[in-house]
Predict the structure.
Amino acid sequence: MYVAVKGGEQAILNSWRLLAEQRRGDTRAPELTLAQIRGQLGLAVDRVMAEGSLYDPELAALAIKQAQGDVIEAVFLLRAYRTTLPRLGVSLPIDTGAMRLQRRISATYKDVPGGQVLGATYDYTQRLLDFQLAAGGTVASAAVAASALPAAPRITEIMGSEGLLAAETPAADDPAPRDLTREPLEFPANRALRLQNLARGDEGFLLALGYSTQRGYANTHPFAGEIRQGTVSVEVVPEELGFAIEIGEIAVTECQMVNQFAGSATQPPQFTRGYGLVFGACERKAMAMALVDRSLRAEELGEAVTAPAQMQEFVLYHSDNVEASGFVQHLKLPHYVDFQSELELVRKLRARYAAAQPKSTDTAEAA
Amino acid sequence: MSILAQADINVLETACSPLNVLTELTCAQWQWLRSPETGLIMVRGRAGGTGVQFNLGEVPVTRCALRLQRDSHLSANGGAVGSTIGVAYVQGRNVRHAELAARLDALLQEPASCERIHTHVIEPLAAAQAARRDAAARKAAATKVEFYTLAREAQTPGNTGEEP
């Protein structure tokens, strides 16, 4: 029996008002502007764009403000917004080899062409709280080199030239990838679908899975061959022009993990790759994505599938934090009738249980 | 088109404001072929940077197309004769940005205005963009590691691999 229940409108309206007041916080402090969020909470903005799968720093900043800094809620807001816009087309694949680098490191070669460029990183900070930031004040400007950083070849190209590393080449017809946002996920999912899923997946989930592969749940022996971060141009071929034009640029982080591979009957031993590519400066996510991409290639590389990080369905069905959050949080919705039926059932079972007990001192209550 | 698309809208407005660029922008006979529309472009990447294509995520884009009518009052049949089409695809949601870019795209195809627009709009924008990229690249370059070794041998990258 389904019973429609009405009521609570006034409570909901007042809840919205309370939320708005709490979001604003103490009115003696100035209100946050989107420019402040974009400028000073840039990594949060990047994470919301990456997992929201929409590269728009201004909207991501708005989502963060609206969600009071709850990143997953902000991702949800961005995902909801994108459904209101029509799809105008697709870009040409971005060329990360031509990236205007802001950071570029390799853990496999010290003296790599183009050098080790640290960029802006927390890696070498001491993780001591900086009370000068609490006090505020002016900041020393960044050092500026006499000459600009040249474009640098991908490290995988250097390794690839010796045949030490499995080549990454598309099929002869360079097929267009299927799109998770337009058709349901089906298994087995090819690498293109998996990479799309991981690129928009939850950082925490991928981080934990990537970590699990390092600890022995899947055996991938990874090295961070290269991590690069910077901006790339986005090119499209408009239907009315028929040739490619640049429409703008985006910041991305790319990670090439290099992993052991013993070889097979048809292939000599060589290194294989896991790949991470994420909007913005999301290095931890790019690294985790590359680890998980590699572990999900187990089947294609003839490895035994034994660990969660190698299981396509487990990974791809649980990586999306909007879906996960929705299903977990739907438990808050009224389940009064469901629960009532379960209650009836448990009472009946208890009565049956009580009746089956040997008749001594009667301790079972009749509910 | 790339320079117009990647220009900051405020800088673009400023670049258009002096001289007769603005006059030309506003006085010419314009006709929308496609009024400004904001939508999404799916950005693609390649596995490993060079492999199979995959969908990375979307980016908002505003596009429009218009026709610049040249001497339309003199041309008896009007229409396509003596007209130029300007097109813009611009990252973001700024309708004004797309409109300005499309108008400038049309004017750039006109011999009468091409040089003027180049000098007053495109070149300054390109210079500003190059300067911005150069400044960022030089700040990054300042964080490049210079390793100190006692004897620096000339080695190829293939044999300098070290354990992490």
Remarks:
- Residues 203 and 285 of chain A are 5 Å apart (CA to CA).
